[in-house]
Amino acid sequence: MAGAEEQVIVRFVSEVDEYAVNDEPLELPARLTRYGLSELVNHLLRPARPVPFDFLAGGELLRTSLRKFMQLRALSGEATLELRYFPLVGEPELTSQQEQPDWISALSSRLADGLVVTGCYDGVARVFAPPAASAAAQALAANEDGHDQTGSALCELAPPAGAAASAIKAATIIGAPREGAVFVAVGALDGSLRLWRGRLRAEGGAAGVGVCAGVCVGHDGSVEAIAAAGSDESEDAWLASGSHDGAVRLWSVAAAMDAADAADATAADLAAATPVDEGGDSLGGGKAKRRKGAAVAPPPPPPPPPPPAERLAPRSILRGHSQAVTGVAWAGISLVVSASMDGTVRSWDAATAQSSHTVGGLKGVQALALSSDVRGGGGGGGGGGDATGALLAATGHDNGLVQLWDARARPSEAAAARLLSHTRWVSALAFAPASPYRLLSASHDGCLKVWDIRGKLPLHTLGAHGAAKVLCAAWGGKDGRAILSGGADCRLLVHATAHTEQ
Amino acid sequence: MPTKAGGGKRRRDIAKEDGAVAELAGEAEAAGTAASGAAEPGAVGAADESDSEDDGVRNMVGDVPLEWYDEYDHIGYGLDGQRLARPPQLDELDALIERYDKGNSRTVYDALHGELVELTDDDVGMIRRIQGNQYPDANFDPYPDTVEWVSSVPEKEPLWARPEPKSRFVPSVWERKRIVRLVRAMRSESYAKSQAAQAAAKERQRPDYNYAIWDETLEDLTREQRRLMYKRLNAPKQPPPTNAESYNPPAEYLLSAEEEAEWLATDREDRPSNFVPRKYDSLRRVPAYTNLPMERFQRCLDLYLCPRTQRAKLDIAPESLLPQLPDLSQLEPYPKRLSASYAADAGCVRTLSVHAGGQWLATGGDDGIVRVWEVATGRCTLSWDLGGVGGGGATPDAAPSAPRAAEPIHRLAFAPAADRSMLAVSIGPIVLLVALPHLHPPAPQPAQLTRAATAAIASAAVPSADAAALLAPPAAAGASVIAWARCDVPPPVVLAGRQAADEPRLPPALSIAHAKAAKQLAWHPRCDYFASVVPEGGARAVLLHQISRRVSQQPFAKSKGRIESVLFHSTRPHLFVATQREVRVYDLLKQTLVKKLSAEVQWISSMALHPAGDNLVVGSYDKSVVWFDLDLGTRPYKALRSHTLAVRAVAFHSSLPLFASASDDLGVQVFHGQVHDDLGSNATIVPLKRLEVHAAGQAGLGVMDCAFHPQQPWLFSCGADGAVHLYT
């Protein structure tokens, strides 16, 4: 036939057994794109409900026609092209949203139990347990105004009324909840880094309050990033904090946590007959503070003055960045990765406080994320062995660029890929715990984007924040499939992604 | 010889009877004089001979010089050998008488016979014909009728009827043989050889001028290269003729009467064409070209006057003359695009200042509110209404009781050290000095730590001067030219976090009351001094304020003209003072004028100093930005005219080779300004990017101020439209 179409020999390989088809080579028209291929596979499979598939050719997501792909890769038309396919990542759905009094600037979640801590510009950190996606969707449907009543804070962590509270820039949960209380590290704009012990709200009660378990002293600028390391089982708990003064400080907080637990137990013993609140004074001002949110109603007697919060000194100070540190992350228990506005990403040996590797470019880094399979044990709270696989870091920059760095390569060749879709400042990045390839990015252009780093285009763009700046984003939920985000519209949004493989 | 001369003179005198005859004699004498001296009598004698042929020559001496007979009484010999007696010589008187007696008779002296001969009319006629280059004989006919003795016309009856011989019709055998012989010779090898030899000999003999006699390498050149060495001056290429040059041009090419009058009125050199198009019916009617003589003449003038030097034609592309700009991608990083906007409904934002730590941005404008923004998130963390303070006039410490119209903030400036969060604000006639301690938390003292301070802590805890503490001591009375006073300002509204209830209000600010509004503030790098500029202040236009002593000084005793801006040098104790036209550099220690830079602009608006301190950028209200290299003298190194309206502000980056200018044309222009370390090369200035985001404000104001981030390649600008932008 004169108008014979160009043909490409293709072999389909499924990454999921459920969707496997015959892997004999097929001859397909070269004009087919992802959609056509997906239809074809569905035609072969005849599932009960059509499943959209995504195709991986040569380690890259197929986003063009087969012909163009072959042209770009300079592949021969006679060679068999192996297409690996897996179900397409579905569009995340907005499942819950929650108003907070001020801009939400910090967000951290713990996958093991689904706890989320948010830091606000009003100086209050709040701990939530977002409901499961299905329950939240029902709740969202039930509420006319869309406000989720079930998502109220489990506890609120703030200096007592009357004391100064600076805007929060970073917050993270340390370890698993113990004895109904959770430990949260909160870094603020005024350079304070406080360790809070927050008693979680009892079922049906009011939000619990927090006791300052320790004040980490030493920052010479605002605290821009915090990361926690340490497993639930291990005795030790470590914090890394990045400050605007350009230093990364490492803190060992296990002793302070144990002391706070002990103090709480003592107070509980003292108030065996009449339960008293937990209270704490952040700065040791000595003034009696009014407590709120007692778990039980009877009129409390005047509480004993709480012990002043312990002041902690950094175990080591990692100096090497010339400008503000905007992101820190742990890779295992002994490796700290930090990113700075001077454009470099450094990895540090936590034991020796020496910089072991440096990659970087010209543009200052505003956000940092490490690939989940090297973060150690999977998840923010998880501890475990050192980084073994590829150390892949993603950095967000002020021009909307998301840059991936391969830390194994030499510094001149470390730039792995450039993901360019945001139009403004990238404020937060997070690799999905469920997949090492999925990346979440948040930007001041008001968009959240979900990427598969094997492709150059974002999988999904979530514009639920409107034009407001998104300041923080994280993967959350017990299964690590929820997308949490907060920003200048004072709303904490939860998107749920469908359960997909890969 | 005297005799001869005397004789000659005598003959001349005698011959003066008739004009024509005298001429003839003169000519004859002249001819004789021109010839050799011995020939002279002979010449006369020859004339006599011709005469004697007619009359008969009696003296038969022949052609000998007649002075041979001067010593004898005879003059020669006759035909028979008898002596011819010398005729009697007339003396002068007799000669005169005889001349009068003879009247108009024409006589010629016959030297051969020694007598006067009277010329007849025929003689005179013959002489006249000879003079007129005609035949002497009047009857001679030079063009007689031809007599055809043998006619070319065949006669009917010829004299003889012999037939044409056969040889006239037959090819000549001998000629054929001769031709054959020649052809054979030409075909022969020897002939070709001889021809070649002849040609070679000719070629050898031909002189070859095609070489440069002093060029030793010439032998290596090809013939074509040699030809090219001698450049011909080609005639300039003429454009092809147009329709207007046709003898019958279309009507539209003809000039109208006015056009022709105009053509005639214009100067010859200025005419668009050197002819007036004329229309003729046919080529036959085209008259002679009247301009030809003049054009030939002009051409000759051109050739005569034109310089004979051959000027090499410049075959240069215009683009190649432009300086080579480096690839802009090599000059990164530099601010390229709008990255964030700090929005407040503030009216015209006149000024901005970036905290030295790079985390905070303060803006102030017409509404009298100082706003402090967090740079990274765009959060307004502090809003501070100072509008009521500035209206206090001369008594700023009087508490403002009634609400007044807000005074605009003219200028604000953070102290240039990261650990001193002091802000100087010029509002109304007052300069306020306030501390913002919460922008930079005081570092904790090691003693406050409950745990043992590790070595790391000790190195980390840099004792930092608390800005609030700096402001706390009371004012020292004394040498200050104007009073410092404590000033109760309304508390700022903190918009991020919350303040402690028992936290003291902002420490009382210090106010320095100026006579008029201070339009510019400049901090000394060490933060103890700052300068304020009151352009209308006369002698007190520049004031230096020392914070530690609470003293204001007046550096200049008298007015130096309207002063627009001042700057402290980054390392040396120099003060840059910009008046309207020039920048003066003073040494503050020696109290001398170091340098006077002529900006060559009409009105300086602002200036900025390169962090190394050797280069100065001056912006002016007449659109230009001027770069001074202080080592290169007092004139500008470069003037950059990238703006179309007044330049309001210029700024240098503190570490990167960047500078920027903000203008009323709504644009902010970013330049690359690399200063090289070696003294041999001048600064490299490359325009990088023009950022046009601002909208037009009131009264034609555009972008009012710009400043760089202290570390990042970020640029801030504020404009009359109320917007504050960050470009990254």
List the helices and strands and how they pair.
The complex is a heterodimer of chains A (502) and B (728).
Chain A: E1 7-14, E2 26-29, H1 34-45, E3 53-57, E4 60-61, H2 66-73, E5 80-87, E6 93-99, E7 104-110, E8 115-120, E9 125-128, H3 133-142, E10 155-157, E11 168-178, E12 181-188, E13 193-199, E14 208-216, E15 223-229, E16 238-243, E17 247-252, H4 254-270, E18 310-312, E19 316-319, E20 325-331, E21 335-340, E22 344-349, E23 354-360, E24 365-370, E25 392-397, E26 401-406, E27 415-420, E28 426-431, E29 438-443, E30 448-452, E31 458-462, E32 470-476, E33 482-487, E34 491-496
Parallel strand pairs in A: 1-5, 10-14, 14-18
Antiparallel strand pairs in A: 1-2, 3-4, 3-5, 6-34, 7-8, 8-9, 9-10, 11-12, 12-13, 13-14, 15-16, 16-17, 17-19, 20-21, 21-22, 22-23, 24-25, 25-26, 26-27, 28-29, 29-30, 30-31, 32-33, 33-34
Chain B: H1 2-15, H2 19-34, H3 40-55, E1 74-77, E2 83-85, H4 92-102, E3 107-110, E4 115-118, H5 121-131, H6 173-187, H7 189-205, H8 223-229, H9 257-265, H10 292-305, H11 318-321, E5 338-343, E6 349-354, E7 360-365, E8 369-374, E9 379-385, E10 409-414, E11 422-427, E12 430-435, H12 455-460, H13 467-471, E13 484-487, E14 493-494, E15 509-513, E16 520-523, E17 529-533, E18 542-546, E19 551-553, E20 563-568, E21 574-579, E22 582-587, E23 592-598, E24 604-609, E25 615-620, E26 625-629, E27 638-640, E28 647-652, E29 658-663, E30 668-674, E31 684-691, E32 703-708, E33 715-719, E34 723-727
Antiparallel strand pairs in B: 1-2, 3-4, 5-34, 6-7, 7-8, 8-9, 9-14, 10-11, 11-12, 12-15, 13-15, 16-17, 17-18, 18-19, 20-21, 21-22, 22-23, 24-25, 25-26, 26-27, 28-29, 29-30, 30-31, 32-33, 33-34
Helix pairs in contact in B: 2-3
